[in-house]
Fold each of these.
Amino acid sequence: MAKRWDYTNATAGHRVGTMICTACRQPIAEGDFRYRQNDDGFLPQHRACSLDDIEWKRIDQRRQEHELFAQRRQNALQAYIEEFGEPWPELIEECVANIPKDCAKGEA
Ligand SMILES: [Zn+2]
């Protein structure tokens, strides 16, 4: 059975273990990386060192969908403001409260 990897981003402040890539032996200071854990600890790898992993493609797709969603929401709000003027603050709060939670977090 293939080992399961977890995916995260060092630029966003995530760290595991020594943060030394097990593929190229260089430190992982920024950007996407994946990691798994064995008895020796965490085994992280740069995204660039694991490009054959198809999960990166899925992560990019999810990020793109989040961006498109945010862009459509922004466009709709802009169109509303041009048509009707600034909405009531309560209306904005209600709209924000109704954004799906996984989109609001912006996580891949
Ligand atoms: Zn590497």
Note: The chain is about 40% helix and 15% strand.
Amino acid sequence: MKIKIVVVLVLIQVYWSCAEPPHPLDPLSPSELNLVRTIVTNSYPASNLTFHHVALDEPDKPQILSWLSSPHSRALPRRAFVVARFKKQSLEITVDLSTRSIISSRVYKGHGFPTLTFAEQGLVSKLPFSYEPFKDSIKKRGLNMSEVVCAAFTVGWYGEENTKRIVKVKCYYANAATANLYARPVEGVSMVADLDDMTILSFSDRFGIPVPKAEGTEYRASKLKPPFGPKLNGINVTQPHGPGFAIDGHSVSWANWKFHLGFDFRVGPIISLVSIYDMEKHKYREVLYRGFISEVYVPYEDPTEEWYYTTYFDCGEYGFGQSASSLEPLRDCPSNAHFLDAFYADANGKPVKITNAFCIFEKYAGDIMWRHTEIAIPNQVITEARADVSLVVRMVSTVGNYDYIVDWEFKPSGSIKFGVGLTGILGMKGGAYSNMDQIKGEIDIHGTLLSDNTIGVYHDHFFTYYLDLDIDGQRNSFVKTTLETRKVKDHKIPRKSYWTAVTETAKTEADARVKLGLEAAELAVVNPNKKTKQGNKIGYRLLPGSVAHPLLASDDYPQIRGAFSNYNVWVTPYNKSEKWASGRFVDRSRGDDTLAVWSRDREIEKKDIVLWYTMGLHHVPAQEDYPVMPTLSTGFELRPTNFFEANPVLKTIITILSVPDDDPVDEFEVGQEFADKEATVMAVKTYSIRRAVEYKILESDRLKYTVQCANFGQGCR
Ligand SMILES: *[C@@H]1O[C@H](CO)[C@@H](O)[C@H](O)[C@H]1NC(C)=O
Ligand SMILES: *[C@@H]1O[C@H](CO)[C@@H](O)[C@H](O)[C@H]1NC(C)=O
Ligand SMILES: *[C@@H]1O[C@H](CO)[C@@H](O)[C@H](O)[C@H]1NC(C)=O
Ligand SMILES: *[C@@H]1O[C@H](CO)[C@@H](O)[C@H](O)[C@H]1NC(C)=O
Ligand SMILES: [Cu+2]
């Protein structure tokens, strides 16, 4: 055994000394995670230290920026940031990988606890099975213990003076009849368990409600019974020329974009160093230094004993990255997708591989990038259209019952679209009802009756994005353009009113807090020192997605912890340690380390600034969301605004593939000239010609080409 360990260590060393140095923003590799574990456990020998977050401690921004200007000149320090539990204390440890040493270690004395590990969630949810009062309750309900499954739920904070690492444990029924355990809660029974001691502290069995029936809850195709439908014919995405993107390590380039794709246990995908090639300026221009989902706050709206505490912080409490699901080829991503694995450290610090954590693909959904038909010019009709192709980076995080599909979509036009799809299974509670007629008068079931004894509980989803935009450099400003109604003063004109744009630059953080939806406003991050030839400040605009404001009282405990959702937009000066909107230690946090607290009245004009955007939705469940929810898609966009001199996709070239004949497909490109120079093939029209290579194109008008067979041998018809 000993020999084996030595060999492994030697291998790690060899790996370290010969491998090419990683990009400074690369997530920790499995060997680096192992090294972190070795270094940390060496300092805490023979102990039960548990790892709750092991992440790259990225070099400071100025270091990265200078490294970028001459990469490979010198390797930047590789450091890891570790959150661990040791002797019932939370530790924050910084490890230097090159010197193999701990450079700082401190006990966190503030409020809140680290992210829950899968291991402890697994252990704590086994406790009820050896807990007699629970076993009695199950027996009393006539349920079969071996078909019960339990899960751990964070409990939040409700003003308690002292807090421990406790969770609620609630149970469900899952058996051969259905895999949909969330649809079959054993309602009325709950336990409080201590995560550090792994013991049940209290138990409550307040009432018995029949466990909802299994029928109608199953979602596995293999278990469903006919009739099936609707039937969809499969669609395959083929790219005969291969993918248009290139991946080098964690760096991705495609069309006019390039960026770095990282992964973090807590937040999932981290996209950095996003820049776009400007054809006119002949260079890549910076857009986004770093972006990720900082927090996903999901308060449920049932104030009863078994549900009031249910207010999840999916990143800080459960680890949005830890919860990433392996993507299924041809189901989660199209056939032209490329898959990437991701790694995180488990409770023991050991690397865990998430196979196919990401997929990257070029997306063509039949949409139009731009078009125009001109009929005003006599005797001609001009039509130009370009197919809308984009690049998508996708990850799915399955946090318990819910599945979140997170897309980063890059468009050649310079837009970045942030897609979020909500699917999976609703949070459901048991109820005594089977029909709305039974729910009369003052009764509030705090949700929608979905099936017999099954209530989909009201809740919200708030997605808070961290967006460190660097528009052509770091010194940026946040500009709000309000559209204001004006009265027409010239009485000779019959119009009475119009609107005009009034632009205001935020000087401090306080000026930049925005609640969307109350007024017509355009929000942009600009580089005030750089202007277009026309003199407009170059910038990027935020096109918000679905707007929701928290509806909880602002002094309610969950909302104190989730106060970063009080505004849809905040802008802060860049500060490396301000990245998690909900704070560093979110489980049982008290809201004293959130974006809402850091954001004061710091100067943000002509500064390196970070835009925090919260997209939200209130979810009143519907019967169609049951037993599994069809994806509800939402999203927002960052769109160049006076960033380019003109439409950057005017001269876009898209390889057009001709309509397949029974013969092999001929291909030609937009703008391609044929050898005989008789005609130039332009975009969409090419679809109407088959086997164009074999034809000489004589003339083309709006809908068809006049062609002559150029090859009187085989192939012409
Ligand atoms: C570590 O945990 C195990 C099982 O939980 C326990 O048996 C052992 O005594 C612990 N060791 C230390 C050093 O605390
Ligand atoms: C309880 O469930 C298990 C597993 O599904 C099954 O094997 C067993 O027969 C059940 N026992 C009773 C009493 O129904
Ligand atoms: C589907 O597309 C992929 C590439 O995107 C290709 O490898 C595969 O052969 C195609 N399958 C069919 C049935 O056309
Ligand atoms: C950076 O942020 C942390 C956490 O909010 C704060 O303690 C620190 O003072 C900030 N540093 C600067 C220079 O503002
Ligand atoms: Cu929902």
Note: The longest strand covers residues 351-374.
